[in-house]
Structures are given as structure tokens and as C-alpha cells.
Amino acid sequence: MPDGRRLPIVGGNWKMHTDRAEAHRLLDALVDDLDGLEGVEVVVCPPAPWLGDAADAFDDTSLAVGAQDVYWVAQGAFTGAVAASQLVGTVEYVLAGHSERRQVFGETDEHVNLKLRAVLGAGLRPILAVGERHEEREAGRTIEVLERQLRAAFEGIPQIDDGFVIAYEPVWAIGTGLAATPEMAQEACAAVRAVVADRFGADVATTCRVQYGGSVNPANVEGFARQPDIDGALVGGAALHPDAFAAICRAVAAAF
Ligand code: PGA
User: Fold this and answer.
1) What does the DSSP assignment read for 114-144?
2) Mean of pLDDT values over 128-132
3) Is residue 147, in this structure, part of any structural domain at all?
């Protein structure tokens, strides 16, 4: 931004929801509602089969497409996998490190690092998700866990630019309806930014966007958007409802 402020970014992660007709309805509704909205960047992450449909629907609009996942190897005999280079031209953003990938699919910090390198190597923008589990928060280990996840994710990555997005998503808040408080989220996002500053320098930390994710909805988003270190939201369940998702995007834009 010309005045040095960070443009907030709202991501909609559809996870493994929607059939093709639903996806088209949702994409069309989002274009109708959100194209040209200023004060927020909007990125939609549909299931892989609809990425091309999303790219077509968003062509010549202000909305961006993101992939929910990527494999880190460049090419080869890896049935079912999608390489970063194969996403180029269709998506701008790629999620890495989402807790469902970590917990359901057994992805480790090392896998997340390999994905980030592949995404950056392909010239795409990562949305790196980090977050503590309930028992880790209870044990007072939240900041330590975030720092471990971030430092492992950044291993061997010499520099990042302002296209690099980090999503703080406490695992206990995802899909539960139990969002963090704005104060908890602010504290964690500030800690994330401090690790970025330590690793890549203060200038990079100033431009890097840090989202909050976990049970964000139109009623609670403003509280997050008003926090100094929170630059938008990563939205799951509410992203499947165009009115709710659009309301979240507008609230974030209004708080900018
Ligand atoms: P939720 O999901 O908004 O449904 O809690 C957030 C996410 O998984 O990014």
C-alpha cells in the first residue's frame, strides 16, 4: 500500500465441500458480491476439481484463486498428486500446513517446509497455516509451538516477500464454533510476526500479512480485524455461504 499499511486478505477454504453445480453458484455469487471491493484482498480455495472453473469465473475480477494443497516434487509417477508448477496459471495462492493436512494426513513440519519451497519456487504465494492444539494452549506452550512450526517451515528459505501470508489457526478453534478471543489471536499473531522479524528482518515482518482463522463468522470478524497484528481471516465453514463470506470480507475492508 502506498501509505505502508498492509492490505488485509480474506481466504475462503471450502475444504472437501461442494459439487460442481454448487461450486458454480458459489463462485458466481462471490463475483457478484465482491468483485472490485476495495480495502481487502479476497482469495477462494475450492476443491482441486473446481480450480479451473474458479480461475475462469474470476478472470478479469479482483478475486484470486488458491489451491488447498500441493505436492513438493516437481513431476513424476505420483498418482493423484499435483505439482506447484501445474498450479501456475490457475491459482495465485497455495495453502500449506493446514491442521487438517497435519492431523488427518500426517504431514510434518518438514513436509510443510518442502511444500513452501515448491510453492515459492513456482512463483506462487503461500498461505502458511500454524496453530497450537488445545492441550498445548492449556500447557502454556502456544508461543513455543508457533515458533517451532514457523522456524521449521522457514528452514532453508533465504527470504520471503509481501506475497507470503501466514494464518494463525488454533486447532481447537477450527470448525468448532469456539473462536479465539481477539486478544488471544492478537497476541499469537504478534508472536508470529516477531518470529518473521527475527528470521527475515523487521521490514519483511512489517509487510507480511498474518491472518486469524478458526470459527470466523460475520458476527465476530470485526473484533479480529481491529487488532493491529491481524491482517484478515482464513475462513472455513462460513466460506460456503456466499452472504456470510461476503459480509466477512466487507467487515475486514471496513476495518482497514
Ligand atoms: P472454520 O475453518 O472457519 O470452519 O473454523 C477455518 C479453517 O480451517 O481455515
Assistant:
1) HHHHHHHHTT-EEEEEE---HHHHHTT-HHH
2) 98
3) yes
Residue count (the chain): 256
Q: Which three cell numbers stand for residue 161?
A: 516477500
The catalytic site residues sit at: 98, 169
221 lines ligand 1 (CB under 6 A): no
Asked whether the beta carbons of 212 and 185 are under 8 A apart, the reply is yes
Q: In angstroms, rounded to a whole number, what is the distance separating the alpha carbons of residues 20 and 63?
A: 19
Q: How many domains does the chain have?
A: 1
- Mind listing the pLDDT tens digit for each residue in 20-49? 999 999 999 999 999 999 999 999 999 999
The overall pTM is greater than 0.90: yes
Q: Is 65 within 8 Å of 43 (Cβ atoms)?
A: yes
Which CATH number is 211's domain given? Answer: 3.20.20.70
| CA distance linking residue 64 with residue 44, whole number of Å | 6
How many A from CA of 55 to the centre of ligand 1? 22
pLDDT score for 3: 65
Q: How far is the CA of 8 from the centre of ligand 1 (A)?
A: 17
Which residue minimizes the CA distance to atom 2 of ligand 1?
236
pLDDT of residue 40: 98
Domain-located, residue 3: no
112: left (phi over 0), alpha (psi -120 to 50) or beta: alpha
Residue 1 maps to a domain:
no
* Domain enclosing residue 78, as ranges: 10-233+242-255
Strand, coil or helix: what is 219?
coil
> Looking at the domain assignment, is residue 68 inside a domain?
yes
Nearest CA-CA partner of 72 in 127, 128, 117, 126 = 117
pLDDT of 185 > 70? The answer is yes
Residue 215 near ligand 1, beta carbon < 6 Å: yes
Is the shortest distance between the CB of 127 and ligand 1 below 6 Å? Answer: no
